[in-house]
Amino acid sequence: MTGAARLAPGRPAVARAWEASDPYAAALRSGRGPLFLRRTDGWLLPLDVERWCARADAVDLEVLDRCEGAVLDVGCGPGRLVAELAARGRTVLGIDVSEAAVDRTVRTGGHSLRRSVFEPLPGEGRWDTVLLMDGNVGIGGDPRALLARVAALLAPGGLLIAETAPVEVDERAHVQVVDVTDGRAASGAPFPWARIGTRALLRRAGAAGWLGAGQWTSGERRFVALRSSGRPASSSAEPPNSTAVISSQRARKPSADNAATDR
Asked: Where is the sequence biased in composition, kind Polar residues (predicted)?
């Protein structure tokens, strides 16, 4: 199996691994770490749980200003971005394989489904923007498969905004979620994950037919905007007139209403 792109009976392997990760659920419920992704060779990647559980910060808001129309946040975690977009009156849905993440998103005022990106989702082929933030471009361990899946979720010419690694890297590994301070082994089997920098993502996306729509650095975080092929598009992901986009296209957009109860 390549990453989590090939569905097995039930939930994909990456979903089952995250669901079984007690340290991850505990961290989301408490709103604090420390928490890490640990490779099988022992290398640790810190996870920024406190930032994820806080309100959207200035860097997040800059990203959200670039979103167009109806937004799907893949791997929404505790839902800070979903909640912010919902507060703006935007059509937005978060998905995450963690029940704790979905519950926290709903409590903060957002709509969320407990679902893997590789499972059937509401509004396939009709989302205007898909977000892959906080390293979620690594979901499934195969960026090429994830890009193909996102392209199927987006409307023609739709926008993908992905947060890339802060260093130029293109690697795949098997990892577990661990809290190294509690002396316990991680729950669940290792699952595939990827880290990919801006240049590598642009190279892979270009080979798959995506159009570059911008790249930027804000603080210490890096981002890429890509547009799916299918209709003429602007050359950059400038912040859109959000109200006009939603009001003129709402009739054909996927609805996030009551999504939190669709599990």
From this structure: 231-249
